[in-house]
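Sequence in, structure out.
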Amino acid sequence: MELPPGLASDEASPEWFSKADNAWQLTAATLVGMQSVPGLIILYGSIVKKKWAVNSAFMAMYAFATVLVCWVGWGYQMSFGTELFTFLGRPNVALDEKYLFTKAFSGKLPNATMIYFQFVFAAITLILIAGALLGRMNFHAWMLFVPLWVTFSYPITAYSIWNPNGWLAKMGLIDYSGGYVIHLSSGVAGFTAAYWVGPRATSDRERFPPNNILLMLAGAGLLWMGWTGFNGGDPYSVSMDASLAVLNTHVCTASSLLTWLVLDIIFFGKPSVIGATQGMITGLVCITPAAVVQGWAAIIMGIMSGSIPWYTMMVLHKQSKLLKHVDDTMAVFHTHAVAGSLGGLLTGFFSNPKLCRLFYLVDNWQHYIGLSYGIHDGRVMAGMKQMGIQLLGIVFVVVVNVIITSLICLLLRLIVPLRMTEDDLKIGDDAIHGEEAYALWGDGEKFDGSKHNSVYGMDDFGVASKA
């Protein structure tokens, strides 16, 4: 095989390179990618009303592709490259051959692998934001929103928290795999964007049944299993940390799902499938910043993630004027912002100093000490400091996302309408894309070639002509 120019045969596997770690990292990244494509594509396309299935699914696919182009063009370097400001890296292309084959900022991996791994996290963040906007955002506005947000918002939190030179990283903030950078960010940004875009049509807000609950469960299953790579890949090595993180992730998620299910049965009398799915998501989100905790802590976190977001969604939401005013289609605020904040605070309480030092590879007894261990070990002030840092991180992420997301929406509003027209809101997919998910067999209708005129010639298929 011909090697890239300037790369000698003995440099194909340099001393710092680990084939095992690299293989797992690429696998973990692909698992995370499959959470979006096809996981969230299936979940979004099936949990919405039938007339929004195509638009909802395609918002996710479009974001995935667009983020990748922006990421290799400038986003990765802004998040993990050379410092420009204390909270942001210098924009630069990340496709230079010499750069791709040099050691990444962490782990025994090349930059090529790290760029791919970090991309799938950036992509899923945008797709989660889309969940708050389903069923009414102008697709052309979404096409502009994605590159703007991944350029001006995501790199700030990623650099500050995940880059070793970031100011919050230096303070000792614990965000193992994205409770802050991904979930709190997407929950706040999605809620903020939903405020500016405006609500769905009244008929959709009053009645918005899933068009296929079985497919919704399939998408949710891909999301759950994909989290093996989401949390298992963040030690950047095939380590004991990775094994513990994977096990804790699934234990917390199962505990959260069951807690949410029990609460639904107690208060509403029926075991809601959609409710259980929400409980699954909040469990995954909550454990994400704290995947390296002891198993008993993961169970407690699951119980709390299945109950506190349940309360904010099912009770508090109905009492708050602000929450009722903003139409958050997929309840991203509750499942990601609330659950992400909860996970961040519980991380500050339950983080095991020994496990944290294994993950962060440091021997600093002033950092990474959960309050519960600080109380137990007589280092209460160190534990309180960690809780304060975790809280500061929440405030920072909220402020950044509210301000930048609002500015982006206000800018876009000058260029293109953020919300679809009333006529398009009534029709849905066919008005926006000229295609429908169930055009051939929905409601007993026959295929109407004059109405469903696809630019890709789908009308010419023999099956369609016989419908």
